[in-house]
Amino acid sequence: MAQIVFTPNLKRHIDVDVVAARGDTVGKLLEDVFRQQPNLRGYILDDQGGVRKHVNIYVNGRTITDRVHLSDPVDAQSELFVAQALSGG
Fold first, then answer.
1. What is the DSSP letter of 73?
2. Cβ distance 87 to 9 under 8 Å?
3. 50 lies in a domain?
4. Backbone phi and psi for residue 67, each to the nearest 5 degrees, phi listed first
5. How many domains does the chain have?
6. pLDDT in tens, 5-35
7. Residue 21 carries which DSSP code?
């Protein structure tokens, strides 16, 4: 199963650590995660189901290319890293 890792700032809002999930695309993996942690969806995806503007998702260290349909391929050995960008001044 693929592993999904979340940055500490997301862990602060939702009690989630590394999550194992099944799927062959980023979207399918995230749907599996959201079944396990439904409150996480709103922090990651916008109302249309795309990745929120201030969230980045990496598959095996590379930024995903499809932020709308989440069709980037993954396999059981993939690691997703979900980072919510912080801003301030």
1. B
2. no
3. yes
4. -85, -5
5. 1
6. 988 877 776 777 788 999 999 999 999 999 9
7. E
